[in-house]
Write a structure and sequence with these properties.
516 residues, mainly beta, Immunoglobulin-like, 4 domains, six-stranded antiparallel beta sheet
């Protein structure tokens, strides 16, 4: 016994193979390959190679080899199987398959967050209806639905009302007993788990609600309600609901101070009263009207204001010409209201009276113009809010003196121009024909400096003081009127202009015709 196995090609074929015709090598290899997976699924004794050593089996039955691709026999070219050859003198040990690599664990998804705004919508004598909003976080897989659980008051045994999760955010819990107090909670469920339950703060009393609670907030109270310090606050807010609802007031989540605020409730309204309002009474008051878990809420915003303080750090920045520049800073106390503007006033030293120069100046600086020369001015500024002007004003520490400026008038030097000019006719006389007995005029125009002397001539004879002729000159226009001329008035008329620089003349002919 050498411990060696005989080559599988020389060993006799199995009994099942003898019954069939000997296949070719290629046909023989194909069935062997198909048999390999069967040996992987369930190894058989036929698949093990036959050795000449019967005492020691190569594959004990209690430890079958793992079904892996590496443990399958490898076919040879002749279609026979080759088994691993163990060393001499040692028993045959089957080869162990490699262990599979561990797969990385996927991170567990967080469950959804708690449902929001759980409230009672309606209560009857044997059921009630809940509403809520979806949670902020639902996870990647999304919600499978919600589960509603109830528990009687005084017990800790929570029971699910619905058997399967549902996706609606409204649910009616049926089959309840009138008069019971029921605690309720809602859980959001997904593939990664259940959320923290959303729970009603108060148990639901099972009894019929004839009318749901509803607050009828007046229109003027839907905005900020503004009152002055010391004024009374008297507000009535109506509501509805049957049976009579429970009314509660809170401020900042805390009950009201009954020493300052009086609350009186009736079946139809609630009255909010403060005798003398203070700035500390400002804020948002929450009104809640509730019937067995069903409720309605409203917010009343009250603002108590007073006049603001005066501006700060008023100073004169600059004085130039008839102008003054002022600057200041906002008041320390705005009276619990927005500053709407500033009022700027001036006062001159002579009269001592204050006059407003700017109203509701929205900036903290300004320029005042049109001041009178020779006056000295003081300035003050009031701040203004919704209540009005501040009780006191900020007064500038300095004064502005508008001084007279010394100016000397110097007329413009105009060069002297020689206006001397000898006479010159710009418009000559023209020949005329007139009718006997009808007055006529002769015209011409002349210029010259000094103004020339005008002499009229008839047939080279000077016309002197003759009532038949009237000679005039106006703005250089010379005229000669011949009154009711006769046949002897015809002839040549000459106009001569004479001044120290020379003389000039023009003439014309006048014809006088008889009557037609």
């Amino acid at each position: 016994m050498t411990g060696k196995t005989t080559p599988p090609a020389k060993k006799p074929a199995p009994a099942a193979a003898k019954k069939k015709a000997a296949p070719t090598p290629k046909e023989e290899a194909a069935p062997k390959e198909e048999a390999a997976p069967k040996e992987e699924a369930a190894p058989k004794k036929e698949a093990a190679p036959v050795t000449e050593e019967p005492p020691t089996p190569e594959h004990p039955p209690e430890q079958p080899p793992a079904p892996t691709d590496e443990s399958a026999p490898v076919p040879t070219e002749a279609g026979a199987e080759v088994t691993p050859v163990p060393a001499e003198g040692s028993p045959a040990v089957p080869a162990e398959p490699p262990a599979p690599e561990p797969k990385p664990e996927k991170p567990k998804e967080e469950p959804p967050s708690c449902p929001l705004s759980l409230a009672v919508e309606e209560v009857s004598e044997n059921s009630f209806t809940l509403t809520w909003k979806a949670p902020e976080q639902t996870g990647r897989a999304g919600l499978d639905g919600y589960v509603v659980e109830i528990c009687k008051d005084g017990s800790s045994d929570w029971k699910a009302v619905n058997q399967e999760p549902f996706l609606s955010t409204r649910y009616t819990v049926p089959n309840l007993t009138s008069g019971d107090k029921i605690h309720v909670r809602v859980v959001a469920v997904s593939a990664s788990g259940a959320s923290v339950p959303a729970t009603l703060e108060q148990p639901v009393l099972i009894r019929e609600i004839l009318q749901l609670p509803k607050i009828r907030m007046p229109r003027h109270l839907r905005e900020t309600y503004i009152r002055r310090v010391g004024d009374a606050v008297n507000i009535m807010i109506p509501f509805q609901g049957k049976p009579q609802p429970e009314v509660s007031w809170t401020k900042g989540g805390q009950p009201l101070d009954t020493n300052r605020i009086n609350i009186r409730n009736t079946a139809r309204d609630t009255i909010f009263y403060i005798r003398q309002a203070q700035r500390g009474d400002s804020g948002k008051y929450k009104l809640t009207v509730q019937i067995n878990g069903a409720e309605d809420k409203a917010t009343l915003d009250i603002q108590v204001v007073e006049p603001p303080g005066p501006p700060q750090n008023l100073k004169l920045v600059d004085v130039w010409g008839f102008n003054v520049a002022l600057e200041w800073t906002p008041p320390v106390d705005n009276g619990n209201s927005e500053i709407k503007g500033y009022r700027v006033q001036k006062s001159d030293k002579k009269s001592g009276k204050w006059f407003t120069v700017l109203e509701r100046c929205t900036r903290t600086s300004c320029t005042i113009s049109d001041l009178i020369i020779g006056n000295t001015y003081s300035f003050r500024v009031f701040s203004e809010n919704i209540c009005g002007l501040s009780d006191s004003a900020a007064v500038a520490s300095g004064v502005a003196s508008i001084e007279k400026t010394k100016t000397t008038y110097q007329p413009e030097k105009v060069p002297q121009r020689d206006m001397m000019e000898p006479p010159k006719f710009t418009q000559p006389l023209t020949d005329r024909t007139t009718t006997r007995g009808y007055s006529t005029h002769l015209f011409c125009s002349v210029r010259g400096f000094p103004q020339p002397k005008i002499i009229w001539l008839k047939n080279q004879m000077e016309i002197r003081e003759d009532p038949k002729y009237i000679a005039l000159i106006d703005q250089g226009v010379c005229s000669l009127e011949i009154r009711k001329p006769g046949p002897f008035d015809g002839g040549v008329y000459t106009c001569k202009a004479v001044n120290p620089l020379g003389e000039a003349s023009v003439d014309c002919r006048l014809d006088v015709k008889g009557e037609i």
